[in-house]
Design a protein that fits this description.
Pfam families: Trp_halogenase. By secondary structure, this protein is of the alpha+beta class. The chain is 34% helix and 19% strand. The protein is built from 16 helices and 23 strands. The protein binds flavin-adenine dinucleotide. Flavin-adenine dinucleotide binds next to helix 1, strand 2 and helix 10.
């Protein structure tokens, strides 16, 4: 047993929590802990006025719904305040070849007679669009449709929306595995942080704006306090490190090592622009777009009054000036006056995210490039897990172990999923993309790739621990990127395909009907804003 594991003279049950950092991670953590434990805990959040937040992170996973539900917030409570829009999918452009696109939608894949639709599609492709043939959402995205009607009702997409306000129980990500809510959100990170600041401070969170200049440790190596420049010492029982890539408490003060993923995911930099958008004139896609580039990819996130965009690239292949030039050229004249935000990314995770009485959440815990918008999902998952494994007076070390395992599984699983995008991309028009096809991937993924050549991914062959990405997501990327040959199950040649063909027909008919009935995103949000 190490000194860390000694419970004998450990602190009492934590009820006094200090959060360092006021970015998305800090405020999501403060709001969620207050929603979970109310006045049975006290929270102080300290953030620097000088150290800026990362300023990006505006696209989410559909699971984020459970975060707002847990806070007992309805869409109309927070979406207008955050200039939020709907996101039905990630749209990948030019990953296979120039001009090609496909979607990774928030929609589970159906099965017929025990075989996923992918299998049936491979046996007898209805068109060259796997995504459109197997998912309704791909057609809605191509037609820029909203997932809600003008009266606010949700499309019928195998998810029953329950009113939650005031009910005693609240949903969490892990409870809802397998029940896919049909969309996620885009929002302005700055406005979300502002909104959550008010939510949390209204519920008693003490907000200190100051620089943390020192982290005090006791004789056991537990954090006893943080010292600020102007507000003196902030003592606490449990400290949450939300200081971003700096990892001020966990990595710097406690010395927890950082495990880099750079060998498998080489993109280590980004340059971002906030570009004005006139939503009365320009169509708003109901998806995040990831457009492949010479040394990475560009994200495009449509918000109510602007577009968030940025080039994620590897410095080994591209200089920052070149990345900014490419991004500005991609966006066009509307970006001419906009200042660029250059960011160096730390890709990987802390070996343990919770050490002694310090838990890192957000970029200080871990980060992978934002190709599948997983950063905010990591925060949401982490804070849910913190509530689940919240320590008692004995600070049972098993709770930390379980928490750390859960967080590591999620990050490592997403890493595998992202590696598949690059290994799978068919384009090989320059050294960056040729290297992507041969770059090391985690050993377990290499084995899985071998199996997927014979049998498309299913629950048996994807990363086995919870990481937010079901098998259908892997099918989308494998078939969409197109560089890894896949084939249908031989058994299907002997099977009766009538039920599968009927399923494909139903998807097509439903997609056509919905495209006709639903308003565009622009129309939906114009109506929503007019009614405010
Ligand atoms: P930060 O925003 O860096 O906040 C750090 C905080 O710590 C600040 O408040 C700062 O003032 C404070 N601080 C630091 N030092 C001190 C000190 N000494 N004293 C007091 N306070 C201090 N995620 C998604 O889900 N979707 C996306 O589309 C997405 N896109 C991204 C694109 C890029 C290029 C990058 C890099 C990340 C992206 N992410 C995305 C991740 C997302 O941005 C982050 O997960 C999220 O913003 C959380 O950041 P944070 O709060 O951990 O850190």
């Amino acid at each position: 047993m190490t000194i860390e594991d000694t419970a004998a003279d450990a602190p009492v049950r934590p009820s006094n929590i200090v959060i360092v950092g006021g970015g998305t991670a800090g405020w999501m953590t403060a709001a969620y802990l207050k929603a979970a434990f109310a006045d049975r805990i006290t929270i102080t959040l300290v953030e620097s006025a000088e150290v800026r937040t990362i300023g990006v992170g505006e696209a989410t996973f559909s699971d984020i719904r459970h975060f707002f539900e847990f806070l007992r917030l309805e869409e109309h409570d927070w979406m207008p305040a955050c200039n939020a829009t709907y996101k039905l999918a990630v749209r990948f452009e030019d990953w296979r070849e120039p001009g090609h696109h496909f979607y990774h939608p928030f929609e589970q894949l159906k099965s017929v007679d025990g075989f996923q639709l992918t299998d049936w599609w491979l046996r007898n492709p209805g068109s060259d669009r796997f995504d459109k043939d197997c998912f309704v959402m791909a057609s809605l995205c191509d037609a820029n449709r909203s997932p809600r009607y003008l009266d606010g009702s949700l499309i019928d997409q195998d998810f029953v929306e329950k009113p939650h306000q005031g009910g005693p129980s609240r949903s969490t990500i892990v409870d809802y595995q397998g029940a896919q809510f049909p969309y996620a959100y885009h929002f302005e990170a700055r406005l979300l942080a502002q909104f959550l600041t008010k939510y949390a401070t209204d519920r008693g969170v003490r907000h200190v704006v100051d620089n943390v200049v020192d982290v005090g440790l006791d004789e056991r190596g537990w954090v006893s306090h943080v010292r600020t420049a102007e507000h003196g010492v902030l003592a606490g029982d449990l400290f949450v490190d939300c200081t971003g890539f700096r990892g001020l408490l966990l990595n710097k003060a406690l010395g927890e090592p950082f495990v880099s993923y750079q060998d498998t995911l080489p993109n280590d930099s980004a340059v971002a622009l906030q570009v004005p958008l006139d939503m009365d004139r320009e169509p708003m896609r109901p998806c995040t777009t990831a457009t492949a580039q010479a040394a990475g990819w560009i994200w495009t996130i449509p918000l109510i009054s602007r577009i968030g965009t940025g080039y994620v690239y590897a410095r080994d292949y591209c200089e920052p000036e070149e990345a900014e030039r490419v991004l500005r050229e991609f966006v066009g004249p509307t970006a001419a006056e906009v200042e660029a935000n250059h960011i160096r990314m730390r890709i990987g995770r802390s070996e343990r995210s919770w050490v002694n009485n310090c838990v890192a959440i957000g970029l200080s815990s871990g980060f992978v490039e934002p190709l599948e918008s997983t950063g905010i999902f990591f925060i949401h998952h982490a804070v849910e897990q913190l509530v689940k494994y919240f320590p008692g007076g004995d600070w049972d070390p098993n709770l930390r172990t379980l928490y750390n395992r859960s967080v590591a599984h999620v990050t490592d699983g997403v890493r595998e999923f992202l590696c598949l995008h690059y290994r799978g991309a068919k384009r090989a028009d320059n050294q960056y993309w040729r290297d992507a096809q041969t770059r090391t991937v985690p050993d377990a993924l290499e084995e899985r790739l071998e199996l997927w050549r014979t049998k498309v991914p299913d629950a048996m062959t994807v990363y086995p621990y919870y990481h937010g990405l079901p098998p259908y997501s892997y099918n989308c990327i494998l078939l969409g990127t197109g560089g890894i040959p896949v084939r249908p199950s031989p058994g299907l040649e002997l099977a009766d395909e009538r039920a599968a063909l009927s399923e494909f027909q139903q998807i097509k008919a439903k997609a056509q009907k919905l495209v006709q009935e639903l308003p565009t995103q622009n129309a939906f949000f114009a109506r929503m804003r007019a009614s405010l």
